[in-house]
Amino acid sequence: MLMSNKDFISPSKSLTFEKTQEKPVKNIYLIRPEERNLMQNRFSCLNFLFLLFFLLMIQSVPLAFAQKFTGFYPDYDAALKASWEKRQNMMIDFYTATCFPSKQLDQEVYRNKAFLPYTDSIICVKVDGESPEGRPLVARFGITGYPTVLFVDPDGQELERLTAFIPLDPFLENLKRILSGNTIPKMESRFLYRRNYHDLYILTLYYVRNVFNKDKLDRYFKAFRKLDPSYSKDSTRVLTRYVLQKELRMGISSVTGEMASYVFQVPEGNSYKLAIQLTDYYLQTGDPEEAWSFFSDYYLIREDKSAIYGYFEDLKRKTGHK
Asked: 73 and 107 in contact (C-beta within 8 Å)?
């Protein structure tokens, strides 16, 4: 028998349940459709809140727990012990939780399958430079920026370091070299009796990028340029521009003569970037005539002027040469 409207609970009441009075349908509870929809909405809301809470809980997991790396030891003490027992060098990655280049190194290098085989030959460990355990090590090894990847022998002596983010291929090239025993100290000892292009390239790059040391940089850079005085190799030109630009940015004014000599000897290609940097330096130090004299001469000898035409015209207006 069909039930009439009076068999349902009153719309004016709150969400309640009533037994029907029909004998054939004992113990069945009926709910109005409107209230059923209300219950479904409430359940949907609860499901959403539960999902939101779950996501927040995941994000609140400590970084040390979230970042587990295959092939890395859990802490510095364990790595140091393993290095001593296995007589293997140790790679210590100093990082901080908020450092983007550190995270970039994690994702692009340490989590890359090409890196994993190297962990059999070197003891790897990550150290949070801002943690209570990491601060004494930061002070001990003189860490001044992040990320810094330190290579240490089993006796605790530093071999060399890599600073800032380095992409996978050059990172692995450095790692292969270090594992082969061709470290910075070894190359420096060879320099006393044998000077080759490859060693001097690495030594120059090391002391301008990883550990800036003006005396050592001048020594190796000078010897490096003597092996290719005409800048015939691309690697010579690239490294020369990098060194000169870095020194001028650091305020080493004595490098201006070397920069001018280089751009006039190698006027084409990317040398225009060096010429613009030197011209800007003259302008910033209050010498617009020197800026104009230098850059106008460079403009005359450069064949491809498309990259510098706009800068040249702007310099004319700045220096009053119309």
From this structure: no
